[in-house]
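[step 3/7] fold_predict: job queued, chain A
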Amino acid sequence: MRLDLLRHGETTLSHTLRGHTDDELTENGWLQMQSTIQQYVAGGTNWDVIFSSPLQRCHAFAINLAERLEIPLQLNMHIKEMYFGDWEGISTQSIYENEPELLANFWQFPIKYHAPNGESLEQFLQRVEVGFDEIHTQMKIHQWNRALVVTHGGVIKLLTCLARHKHLNDLLKMSAELGQLYSVKMYKNDSLSFEEIKE
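[step 4/7] structure written:
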């Protein structure tokens, strides 16, 4: 099964750690996503289904696109961004000024450190795996082979890390640009596994 992972575009709070904060896309953010999708559609890409995070920076665009392409849309509660607890909606600059050591530890060793009252990387990994397990099941039932997944930077970085067999401490070094698309293959034997697709 092929998954094309589309990160949402710029949002009204793009300068902050948004996490579960439900901010909207800016006009530019919408255009970033539209421009990326247009290239794929023009190149003949056909998706069988769209899966989306329920947060509106993903969901609003996904609804519009599913209607235009006339394909099914399914929301998945488990593919939301990592929850940043006390850091939700706060800029990294502000966090750096107030808690420089904690922020530095989080960037370097995300397995060991997380935002105060936020989700640990282990919790995030388990939640995202549940989400993609559900996506795998749905694709198998409906015999869908290719899905567009509208999601978040953290989710894309996590799947890229898994697909490249990297240590999870390398998570934040993975690329996930606003409005860009990243592709992986998804397999399931005893457990889910991912493989990066390079165009």
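[step 5/7] annotate
Residues 16 and 94 are 9 Å apart (CA to CA).
The first strand starts at residue 2 and ends at 7.
exit 0
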